[in-house]
Amino acid sequence: MIGAVAYGLLHSGAETADSTAAQWLPAQPQPLENQLGLVGRIEAATRQTLSAPFEGVVQQVAVTEGQRVERGQHLLTLDTRQLDIQLRQARAELLKARRTVQEMRDWAHGVDVARARRAVTNAEFTVNNTESELADSRRLFERGIVARMEVESLEQQFRLQRLELTASQAELRAAQARGPGDNRQIADMELANAQACYDSLDALLAQRELRAPFAGIVLRPQKSDGPGAAVAVHQGQPVSQGAPLLELASLERINATARIEEVDLHQLSEGMDVQVTGDGFDGLTLRGRVLSIGAQAIVADVYGDGSAYEVIVAIDPLAPEQQQSVRLGMSARLAVVTYRAESGLAVPAEALQQGQNGSTYVVHRKALNQPSRKVTVTPGRAVPQGVKVSGLEPGFVELPKTGR
Fold first, then answer.
1. Which residue numbers delimit the CzcB-like barrel-sandwich hybrid domain (predicted)?
2. CATH architecture, domain 56-77+208-250
3. I want to staple 351 with a disulfide (CB 3.0 to 4.6 A). Which of 146, 152, 347, 382 is the partner?
C-alpha cells in the first residue's frame, strides 16, 4: 500500500514536470479561411445615359437630380410639335407611294393606257375612212369624174394617217410597258421607304415620355465634350436629337471597385467570395464575388516597385432596407476569401517539428489523459489558425516550450 502511494506521488510529479515543459493545444476540425483585405468604393453596376430621341423642346421634367426612381417611372416629357410636322409629311409621302403602287397594279386599266388605246382607235377609224374615200375617188377618176389632183391629195392624207396610226400604236405599247418591270419595282421600293420613314417617326413620337428602364438614382449626365457634369436639364430647354438629358445609376445591382497591388495579384481569381463592409453602412455585411480583374495596370510605380490593378466585385442584389443604407460613392472594406475549407485541422507552426529523416511530425494525444506519440503530418496552406495539416486525427498537439 505504501509502495503504491509512493508510485502515485512520483507519477504525479512526473506529469507536473511534463506540463511545465510543454503546452497542449486542441486540434479539432474547423472551417479554415484566408482573406485578402482591399479598400474600394460602392458604384452602380449599370449606368445609362438617357438621350433625346428627337429634336424638340423639354416640356416637363418630372424628377430632380439625386432622386430615387422605380422601374418604369416617368422622368421627362418632350414637346412633339416639330415632330408632328415631320410625321404629317411622312404620312403624305406614304399615301402618295401607296397610290402609285396601286396605279401600277391596275396599270393595264389605268388612265394612261386607256388614253393611248383611244388614240389608236381614233387613228384606225380615220385611216379606214380615208382609205374608203380614196377607193371611191380612184373609181371616179377612172370614169373621168374627178381630177387626178384630188386622188393624189387623198393618197398623201392616207399615208400621213397611217404614220399617225403607227405612232399611236407604239405609244400604246410604251404605255402598257410602263406598268410592269422596273417601274413597278421602283414604286414598291419607294413605298417601302416611305413606310419605314413613317414608322420610324411614329416610334420616336411614342418616346416623347422618357421612363426609367430600371430602378436607380437620377444623376446629371456627363459632358460629351469633356470631363464633368453637363448643365441640368430644365423645362423649355431646346435639345437636339441624341443630346444627353439624364443619367440613371442602377440600385438594383451595385459593384464595389477596388485596387490590388501587383504583389498580391496571384492570390486573386474571378469568382472568389467577398464580404463587403463600410462605415457608411455600419452593421451591414454585403456579400458578393470577384467579377473581374484588370488585365492592364491602372497605376504604375515610377520607381519600379510594382503596379496596381482594378478589381470589380459584383455585390448580391440588395434588399429594399439595404438600399436605404447603401449609397453610391461610399467607401467599402472588401474581405476577399482567397481560400476556404469547410472542415480542416490546423496547428500552430511552432508545433511542427522536423525528424531526423526530414519528415515533419507533431507530438499528439487523442486526449489529455492518454499517452503522447509522434505523428507524421503533411503541412499545407498557412491559415490564421496556423498551418493546415493532413494525416492527423482530432485531439491535442504539443506546443514545445520556447528554447526546447
1. 50-221
2. Beta Barrel (2.40)
3. 347
